[in-house]
Amino acid sequence: MLMNTSVTCKHCKLNLSATQHAQTICCHGCGRIITVCKYQETWNQGKYVSDTKFYKDSLRQRFLENDCQGSSWSTSTVKYVQSETISSWEAPRGKRALLCGVVYSKQKFRLKGTFNDVNNMRHLLVEHFKFPSSSIHILTEGGTYFHPTKRNIQAGLKWLVKDCKAGDSLVFYFSGHGLRQPDFDNDELDGFDETICPLDFKTAGVILDNEINDTIVRPLKPGVRLHAIVDSCHSGTILDLSYIYSLKDKKWMNNYPPSNVYKGTSGGQAICFSACEDDQLAEDTSAFSGKQMSGAMTYTFIKAILENPDITYEGIMISMHTAIRQARATGCLLKRLFRRKILQEPLLSASENFDINSTINL
User: Fold this and answer.
1) What is the Rg, in whole angstroms, of the alpha carbon atoms belonging to the chain?
2) pLDDT tens-digit readout, 192-231
3) Residue 43: its pLDDT value, please?
4) Fewer CB in a 10 Å sphere around the end CB: N or C, the chain?
5) Which CATH number does the domain housing residue 329 bear?
6) What is the helix, strand, coil percentage profile of the chain, to 5?
7) 75 closest CA partner among 101, 103, 55, 42
8) Predicted confidence (pLDDT) per residue in 242-259, tens digit
9) Which DSSP category does 146 fall into?
10) Lowest-pLDDT range of 9-23, 49-63, 285-299
11) pLDDT digit string, tens, across residues 57-92
């Protein structure tokens, strides 16, 4: 029988569980690699390790002071065999979340902030919005997590809305690359489908906005609310929702597909915060924290909520726009974007228009 041993992270003091022969593990609290013992044999009968205790200091202090630094793990850091499948995940009533952070390890287009993004978003959900830790599943590279492959993300999306009922609050978060491609179904006003890029997108392909809409928007029943937070390039209408909020005009704008195909829910509500408009690029940067890499949208989204727990939907949008514009004005963000005069502008979309001045509640 394989025995587990308890390890305490010396950086964030989180209690971790590892097998007796594990050489290193990735701390779920701060992302650092923790040495356990000298490697003796391959771990070939691993178990999925769910964290049961979180960093005790306040989320506000932890995030704003940037105590968590980027991790340096790789997909080969921990050797394990997962003992469960995504299809076996329980679908709890109430609050439920799927968080995806794709690093694209060993690729030229590797992202440095996505692991931090997922970590910070999980802490926000647990400590601020009171999500049970057992109701949050993470797809990312390293540790004991399922990798964010196309197949795993598709399975995770199905789990997110499985057997949803009135009163359920669902969250889908994605931090990674996004692309766009020509629309052949005549359901995009700009003529392009938006996509998210799984870890294996070069071989397995991308996930289109049409599929995301079919999987997690269409099944939403009356009384069910979904919030999607997508930090990737070209993510403006990644859920193909029918309404887009214009901060400039202070009103909801129609985003109906030209083909008139139905893109709505089955009575529930879907709301999406996107990192940028469909023709824009999103930023992976340390400009806001000074040292920790993070998606610009993710960082400013979390910061807005921590600074004002009663913030409204419009308040979050204004706060994110202001922070990103100020970073651009001071030259903090990557210059390659601004040589093209492209400004990242977060976008809010919804399956139905609602009171933009209502307090956000995930």
Assistant:
1) 20
2) 999 999 999 999 999 999 999 999 999 999 999 999 999 9
3) 28
4) N
5) 3.40.50.12660
6) 25, 20, 55
7) 103
8) 999 999 999 999 999 999
9) B
10) 49-63
11) 445 554 554 433 333 333 333 333 344 689 889 999
DSSP sequence for 326-343: HHHHTT-S-HHHHHTT--
pLDDT, residue 26, reads: 57
Higher per-residue pLDDT: 322 or 2: 322
Catalytic, out of 123, 137, 147, 177: 177
Evaluate if residue 134 carries a pLDDT over 90: yes
**Cβ contact 181:192 at 8 Å:** yes
**Encoded tokens for 144:** 């004991």
272 is catalytic: no
CA distance 58 to 56: 6
CA angle 301, 129, 131 (to 5 degrees): 120
Predicted pLDDT of residue 142: 73
Short-list 127, 177, 169, 183, CA closest to 153: 177
- pTM of the entire structure? 0.77
Structural domains of the chain, count: 1
From 12, 68, 233, 276, the catalytic residue: 233
CB 72 within 8 A of CB 297: no
| Residue 252 belongs to a domain | yes
Taking the C-alpha atoms of residue 152 and residue 175, their distance in angstroms, rounded to an integer, is: 15
Q: Which two tokens stand for residue 234?
A: 């070209």
* Separation of alpha carbons 307 and 300, rounded Å: 10
Distances (CA, A) of 55 to 11, 27, 304: 10, 11, 21
**Does residue 116 sit within a domain?**
yes
Torsion angle of C-alpha atoms 115, 219, 158, 95, degrees rounded to 10: 50
* pLDDT tens, position by position, 261-315: 999 999 999 999 999 988 888 877 766 666 677 788 999 999 999 999 999 999 9
Decide if 98 contacts 160 (C-beta within 8 A): yes
Q: Does residue 188 lie within any of the structural domains?
A: yes
Task: Tell me, yes or no, whether 53 lies in a domain.
Answer: no
Residue at token pair 């700009």: 190
Q: Pairing state of beta strands 95-101 and 136-140? A: parallel
Residue 154, classified by CB atoms within 10 Å of its CB into exposed (0-12), middle (13-18) or buried (19+), is middle
Task: Print the domain residue range for 326.
Answer: 85-350
